[in-house]
Amino acid sequence: MPLDTSKNNQKIPVNPGEVLFIGGKASTSMNILHEGSVRVETTLGDTSIVLYSLEGANLTPGIFALLEGTPYPYTIRAKTSCVVSTYVMNQANAKKTLTTKVSVGVMAVRTLLKEIGELYKRVLSIKGLSSKFEQTMDNLGAVYYILNPSIFSDVTPGAMITRDENIIDPVMKLIRNNLAGFQEHGGMLPDKPTINFLEEDHGEFFEKDYSESIEWNDAEFHFIRKILSVNPKISQALFEADPTLLQSAAESYVKTYRELFELLSKETYDLSEMMNSMFVGENALLEKFNLTLDLFNTGYSTIPSTVLLPITEWALKKSKSLLDEYKQIFGTNYASVGNSLDKLESKQSELTAKYGHELTAQKNKEEAIAQGGDPIRAGIDTKALKVELLNSASQILNYSQADPEAVKEFSTLMVKLKSFKNPLDPEPDNRKIRRTIAKTYWDVYKKSFTKWLQSGKQAPKAVELMLRYGYFDETLLDDGHIVELVGRLYQPGGNPSAPIHHGTDWLEKIYSREVPTSVDELGQTFFEKLKMDLKDSGIKSEKDIPPDYDTGDARLGSEISSMYEPNVRLTSGNIASHFPILTKYHITIPLEKCFVSKDDVEKALQYILGIDYTAFNREVIYRNEDIGIKNEFIQRSIIPDFILVPSIGPKIMMWQDLSIFRGAGSKESRGRICIPHFVTGDLKTFMLEAIAAFRWELCKNILGPDWNNVGIPSITADYTDYVQFYKKSKDLSPELKEKISSEFKRFRTDRDKFAYDYSLWIRYEAEGVQRVNRVVRSIFYRHIPFHKNIREKISSQPAYAELHNRFKNIRTRQHKEFENKYKKYMDASGNLPKELYENLTFYEV
């Protein structure tokens, strides 16, 4: 029986386990706990949970419901023997009491503060478990598809996966839509699933945030908390001087408690839904793995035991771990788990015993490969390599002859960093240590590069690995990683047709003045910064720079600090956890899978140019006074420089659309695109994003102030107009407008929105699969035409037919005009200069 609060001003002893107030009943009293402790518990859906306990004297259990004027959202039960006083009161009287009896008001606000803190901890624990479940389900879903690619009959192996909202099985629909997003965002599914893949965070590809924290920035809450934390005499005097502060604090805390309670309900519901999807019913995710094991056991599956059984073992252990965490949070086992987990454990035990010899053989094979048993590692003596790279950090620091004091601090911080469980943790103190280390690292890098260059490119292997890959300390990598790096270091670089450079080759070109220096993050050039440093010297042009200032070493230093260092940071994809030194914590997929060679870049580039053949085109001026050509505008494709920087991550940076910004030849200069040497995702997808950014910025640069002038049609003008006015478009349905509005919320700039649509255009629309809306399709068909063979293939489809005819008519007319214009430039044999012939060919359809 709950307490009878109808009698006013009563002091009641309560035995352990007795209910004081029942959830759902009206709150009609102010209650003061004099001694003992109470437990606050509630039921959310079918799930019961103890929220927190209140212990000690001068607390007001249930004050939230009284001040909010609502029934108790929880049940309050005696945890130990208690003594409680109750005072009959309604909401209005309670609020008045807060200001007339300051001691009671302070007691109530302190209680609310304590309850909010405890409730926040409970929400965090459930949010953390929910995030772990979501990540586990998403990763297991992707692995299930890798093991059983035939589950989607309309998807051919290796093809792009599209979303399908019509799938009845909710788990299969989740898997399908997750995979579509995974591919769209550059995710790269492994050929066969691995434990590493299952344990990694692929949220950026799945469009998920697996954060275990919640956003909470209530300034008023924290302000009152600070007041309450000072000396009680001071806070009491403050509230007595202005009692309305207490009422304001109480109202704020009641609002915060309600928000947290609703968040608790949502997180608990989401967790319950995920756990049901994982464990409950014939469509549960674990049941799908049970079926996979059954097919394997009966011989209907061709999946090797060495691939399947480690995956199902991981799924079993992970499930048990998550269920144990659930029990710790809720105080009881998850009631609806069913028998799917027991079945998985039974099948796993049986098959592990049956195929134990194969699993053992595979483990031995992997160990042999780690010791140099594959083509990349062939000929590498692992033991000798370990000796050669012993104390790599000391070797590099000694080679660079860096400042002794800086090296001393650097070494101390490296020791501290290596003591952390994860050196890449985004926690502020860790970030501060990494920033300090990075500052010395880049000074060491520059000095080492200069010495390496001047000594005929001869240096200890540790130094060469640092210059190429960002290696620094052998203890921060596994043995297999180091062997992989060394094996790749001396591989032939390939002979790509495009200007693709290793980072060290690029820095050498800068040092020797073969190419101009890059701009920094603020867009300043080497000359502009030097001019600013020497503002009293009267420098007006680059020719005026004193030779002592414009040296190869100065240009190298500028390039490293302006372009190289920022791009190593930006290509890592996560600024909060960035660290320029390569560690095993960076490596989320096997190193050999994310290694990028010049040939890899060339293949990805040719794939894109095979679809978007005008990707790097611009209009430039052609002059040939020998045959009377003073100024002719022609189309020209100028492929940018691609630079492989010592970084690992899921981002390719378009750094510059031009390398010369003023004067003759500026519009014909190459852009600069930086690629991490290890790409943790799909290289083609990231290249598409970078080339989309290049297209956008080049168009803005070429057109200047008219880049968004719809009177002068261009990619940027037409697409910006679409972004601004799509809600008024007659060509788009209300449902589609709502979908576009939702999609646009994911992107920060118009360029980002354009890059997303551009990726869909190249990956899907080029295959005749409609993924952009008709307005975007019209803009892109005009400004980003497909290669001729693709246009001919899709032109018969209704969605493209009218666009194709319009494009064909415009290009035919342009071609005719140029053909007539160029007749006067033909030689006696009827031939045109190469530049004019190529321009005429450009307009052929």
Automatic annotation (TrEMBL):
Domain Cyclic nucleotide-binding: 16-82
Pfam families named in the record: cNMP_binding
SUPFAM superfamilies referenced in this protein's UniProt entry, alphabetically: cAMP-binding domain-like (SSF51206)
Gene3D superfamilies: Jelly Rolls (2.60.120.10)
This protein's name: Crp/Fnr family transcriptional regulator
Organism of this sequence: Leptospira levettii
